[in-house]
Design goal:
The protein is of the alpha+beta class and 324 residues long. It has helices at 2-12, 16-74, 79-83, 163-168, 173-190, 194-199, 201-216, 235-277, 279-295, 307-323, and strands spanning 84-87, 91-97, 100-101, 110-113, 119-125, 129-133, 141-143, 149-160, 221-232. The chain contains ten helices and nine strands. Strands 6, 7, 8 and 9 form a four-stranded antiparallel beta sheet that branches. The longest helix has 59 residues, at 16-74. This is Band 7 protein.
């Protein structure tokens, strides 16, 4: 009303253009206000719908819980046999009430209470499990980066770290972990050469453990250790590698023998030079050799013969040949 009087005053005072502009602006503001009211009403209605649904569900849930308590009281003490459950020290119980996960997480170890007909629970074993990746099947054979077919035998040690997550987030945590271990083993071996697989088992095991642990964390699984027990090669490849290794050893043996002969020839040349400078050294070496032979227990009899006598006969033979 106040706005209408203000516009009428502007018309009456000779300001029709300004009054017309003010009227148009007020009209736009009214349209925006009406649209905003309709939008807010739709938003409120949409928000009120789920609240009503949740309210009805909570009301039904309270009624069912009340009826369950009535059933427990009426059938007491026989109902206590059904309501009280026990889990071991290495187990946890995940309880669902009317299909929803109860607050407080997993129960146990010890005694816990459930309501009949509306509560369901699942036992989860927290002990470490061992999974042996079998190498006998053809599907478990791995193709390395250098196109060599090998059969790998690995062991995976894992346990459930979060019982609630292992039940709520995955259908079968143990089966999923085993399938993932097989796939991870195949992928890891496919990026390695054969000599790396044979010589770097600890490094490969560590990388597999980190990859599996990171992937299974969302399932409530903790991969503690991965070990590669054995790497089996085809028979033909084993024979080829054995022949290659034998040839390499023979080549190294020949090189070592040649180096020994070379060093021995150099030593003999130096010894001959020393003996040539001192003839008495040859006699001493001769006597030393006789001493070595006589130290052994044998029936060999050695008569020492001076080398000078032989040289005398050789000189006499040369002189006789010259005269004739």
């Amino acid at each position: 009303m106040k706005n209408n009087l203000l516009l009428y005053g502007k018309w009456s005072t000779g300001q029709p253009d300004q009054a017309r502009g003010d009227h148009d602006r007020w009209r736009e503001l009214e349209l925006v206000g009406s649209n905003f009211g309709q939008s807010s009403g739709r938003i409120v209605n949409s928000l009120a719908g789920p609240d009503d649904t949740n309210g009805e569900a909570s009301t039904c849930g309270r009624i069912l819980i009340f009826l369950s308590w009535v059933l427990v009281v009426l059938t007491m003490p026989f109902s206590l046999l059904v309501c009280f459950k026990v889990v071991q020290e290495y187990e946890r119980a995940v309880i669902f009430r009317l299909g929803r996960l109860m607050q407080g997480g997993a129960k146990g170890p010890g005694i816990f209470f459930i309501l009949p007909c509306i509560d369901a629970y699942a036992r989860v074993d927290l002990r470490t499990r061992t999974y042996d990746v079998p190498p006998q099947e053809v599907s478990k054979k791995v193709l390395t980066k250098d196109s060599v077919t090998v059969s790998v035998d690995a062991v995976v040690y894992y346990r459930v770290s979060n019982a609630t997550v292992s039940i709520a987030n995955v259908e079968n945590a143990h089966h999923s972990t085993r399938l993932l271990a097989q796939t991870t083993l195949r992928n890891t071996m496919g990026t390695r050469h054969l000599h790396e697989i044979l010589s770097e088992r600890m490094t490969i095991s560590g990388s597999m453990q980190l990859s599996l642990d990171e992937a299974t964390e969302a399932w409530g699984i903790k991969v503690e250790r991965v070990e590669i027990k054995d790497v089996r090669l085809p028979v033909q490849l084993q024979r080829a590698m054995a022949a290659e290794a034998e040839a390499a050893r023979e080549a190294r043996a020949k090189v070592i023998a040649a180096e020994g002969e070379q060093k021995a020839s150099r030593a003999l040349r130096e010894a001959s030079e020393v003996i040539g400078d001192s003839p008495a050294a040859l006699q001493l070496r001769y006597l030393q050799t006789l001493n070595t032979i006589s130290a052994e227990k044998n029936s060999t009899i050695v008569f020492p013969l001076p080398i000078d006598i032989l040289t005398y006969f050789m000189k006499s033979k040369e002189a006789f040949a010259a005269n004739t």
